[in-house]
Amino acid sequence: MVDCAGTCQGTSRHVAGYGMASSGKCAGALDVIFVLDNSGSVWRWVEDINQFTLDIIDQFELSSDAARVGIVEFDKFALKVSDITTSIDTLQSQLSLRNSTEGLTSISNGLQMAADMFAASTRDVAQVIFLLSDGDQSEALGGAATAIQKADELKLQGIEIYAAGFGQASISTLVDIVSDPVETHSYFGDELDDVANSFGSEFCARVMAQFYSDGCCEEADRDCTGKCGGTAVEDCSGACNGLAYDDAGGCCVVDDRDCEFVCKDRKSTRLNSSHSQDL
After folding, report:
1. How far is CA 77 from each of CA 32, 73, 93, 104, rounded to the nearest angstrom?
2. 122-176 per-position pLDDT tens digit
3. Distance CA 54, CA 68 (A)
4. 209 FRET partner, CA 20 to 30 A, in 29, 158, 198, 234?
5. Which helix (H) or strand (E) holds 22?
6. 139 DSSP β-pair partners
7. Secondary structure (3-state) at 73
8. Dihedral (Cα; 217, 221, 223, 226), 10-degree rounding
């Protein structure tokens, strides 16, 4: 398989390895942080939000080689509910301790805490935020513009943002917060059940489809150094429009490629003419 770990123009990481674990859950190395609205307006749904979060987490294979999960909640301030972990028991226990508040809403503080948790991690994997809210950033705390600005900062760092809104959630704000394409990264429902039955039930598949494939970034998405977004391994397109690999899995230098798309000196025959995988 072609290993193009990195980002395509700052938005999509494509690495080989998507699949299903023996448990039947989605398998792939990534860190996911749930950023949960806990402002005054969601007091009726705290337990439902907890269960919604656990149902999504249950879609992932949790291990040191697969997914890890962290949880943040926010009202006026942000609070770390759980560090990034592979322990479902820890996540369940920490969620059960959540209480409703009467605070204002600061989406930006929730996003920043998630970013700080990612920054403290030494694992070089895809980083994903799932934002759940029933409202908008309070005007007294900078309004929608502050939340959108914070999200833009995180997306520039390569963090992928998904969002689900219900109740009185601001569609326009969440659309501007999420990563592209908006259609696959956001969902809005009148009730939390609507979110759970649609977007929530397919979240793992959406994430894996975004981050895992058999191919490199499209050529138009590669920068002038031949890397995906400047961070991936080099583009492996060889002479005669083929793919060439050395025995270590890296690309041959251009002068070492021949028209059979093998490295002249090493004669590796690991070729891959397909760049897509149906998910």
Report:
1. 20, 8, 22, 8
2. 888 899 999 999 989 999 999 999 999 999 999 999 999 999 999 999 999 999 9
3. 13
4. 234
5. none
6. none
7. strand
8. 30
